[in-house]
Amino acid sequence: MASRKLRSSELVTALGVVILATLYVGASFAAPVDYLPTGQQVSLFWPPTGIGLAAFFYLRPLVTAPTILVSSFLLNASFGRPLGPSLAAAVATACGLTAIYLLLRWVDFHSRFDRLRDVLALVFLGALVGGMILGWASVGALVLTGVFPPGLQWRMTLLWGMSFGTGVLICTPALLVLRHARWPRRIRPLRVVEAVGLEAAAVAVVLLIALTAAQPLFLAFPVVVWAALRFQMAGAAPVALFLSAATVYTQTGAGPWGGQLVSEMGVIEGFIASMTLTALLLAVIITERDRAYRDIRHVSDQLLLAVDKLDRRLRPRPSEIAGRRDEIAQRRDPMAERQESRAAQPDR
What we know:
348 residues; mainly alpha; Arp2/3 complex 21 kDa subunit ARPC3; two-stranded antiparallel sheet; cell membrane; MASE1; Integral membrane sensor domain MASE1; transmembrane helix
């Protein structure tokens, strides 16, 4: 029995490694990419960083880090870089993602996103600090190996750090929500209709942004607010991922910023960050509010039961009342007994 469980665990781990490597490498080819005038590659957001960070919460760190190392090495080599710089960049990426994971563990990060501090930890430690750590480590490795000129180190660190941080902010919440997803005990038809309507609204917004000249980006915010209010993190994170990825899609020159990725990168990053933060923060606030209501209801029920129990203990039971009445009836007043004895004596 123990050996069977061990084989089953090893099979699940091997399957997780294959899935992680496939997603890590495959997502890189779907990332929106542009090039600087000097030839360096930049991306609006880099999905492999978000996928790699989320993988630490699915698999053991000692399994995840080597998988990211090998996947990143193959990815860098596919870009035509020499083996030495590819290995250096892969080591920097694996060490950087491991450092972000340890930072999140240090602050007691919950992958369920059931507290406001979890979202803030992912935003500040995972996206901002972590993105800059990854950017500095990766660019530094490529500068030391001669791939990037030293004069571009700080600019590339900033651009790659923004790209890595946005990848964490967009992809990691959706993947961690999927980890804790459970099939509902009771499926309500109206809930299903609302979920389908939400997805239809998200697709309609993307089409309006991509196909109209007005580029109504503000229409994305009502959709993410709807998802956060009604479905909390389970709806907000996937919808924010879909809207962010689809709206700013620029690989083929489509979308509102087609062909202007580098020059408009700050505007794009601001739009993605604003929309995603709105979705995540509102979702976790609604989650905390609902949990507070449940706690208050539970405490109220417990208090009601305690008061009822105390009332039953203090209130005399019917049997005790009857026994007390009989005891009082049997007790004779000494003065009344003397009067009765005098009345019973004959007159002389």
